[in-house]
Write a structure and sequence with these properties.
This protein has 394 residues and is mainly alpha-helical. Belongs to the autoinducer-2 exporter (AI-2E) (TC 2.A.86) family.
Amino acid sequence: MKVPQPIATPEVSPVLHVVHPEPVPPPGDPSALDEAEARKVDFVWSGVMVGSLALVFALLSVFGGVAVPVLLALTGAYAFNPLVTLLEKRGMDRTWGTSILFFAGTLLMVGAGLYLVPVFRDEAAKLPGFFQRASTQVVPQVESLLGVSLPDLVSQRTAELGEKASELLQSAGPTAARLVASFAGNTARFAATLLGLSVVPVLAFFFLQDYPRLMGRIQDLLPRRSVALVTQRFREVDEVLSAFVQGQLTVGAILSVLYAVGLSVARIDLAIAIGLIAGFGNMVPYLGTGIGVVLAVLGVLLSWQGPWQLAVVAATFIIGQLAEGFVITPRVVGEKVGLAPVAVIIAVLAFGELFGFVGILLAVPASAILKVVLSVVLQRYRRTQLYKGSVQGP
């Protein structure tokens, strides 16, 4: 007896399917493109990056009220994404990780405010007494130290400054109230500024929460054949930015400790606060040091105990700058970033002049992107026949 054979069912193709006319190169395989294709992709990518930077700064100039909060939020999301990703890898939901990070940041800001506001208030209250002491104690010490006799006008002016300082402190409240009322009179501008500042943390929260999804959608827009090479170029930009930011934060922390210890030895009341400002302000070369020196000298004058304090302050900042320039930065940041201090200073000055405070914030990221773009263009140019000198004449 024959066993009936099962009836073969026809193979049904899916209704929705994706047709790739060519095999898609696997991720991370830029060599899937030949030299001519890779050169074309790199030049197009370089042009798009430069054009995108120009578009960003054009939007800042035209739609600053909208563009600035968005850019600040994106910058914050990019900076804190590694922390949230680390929490996510340890099993925490990304939303919870973002919430915990924002809660910790809020507590840190509130704690810093509770610590700094009373200290600054107490230091401001010392100003009248300082000017009075300066006219009777500091000026004679300076005369004895320099071996010269200062005019009586110095003492008179110093005493007058003390009286003016007392008057300013007494009228600080009403003056501030009048300034706030005058600024609030321009309702539209006041509301727009307030809304822009308040929306930054909200936007940063959602950008940080959806950061992987946003990056995935951007990657989905890339041409399939060149996605690996373009992704590699973006990874190079990310490595430069990450190395610079993380390295500068580390350098800032080391310098903050060094400055805080030195200024504490000089018996300055705001030693920790000035050390933090000078240390982390060093992300803009020499800016943090300059501000720190000014604040430290003011702190010495407000707690004057002798010329030795100025000597300790000078030694602290000289040692800090030498250690940062010859030991800390080369070892911590190294040559992975490749952004020279002179280039950073020029970029900060140029972008700050053109776009204000936001330009200062974006100067280093923009310079890092342009550095990668320039290195890619030069790399491709050196592979051309024009550079090698093999171009045949007509």
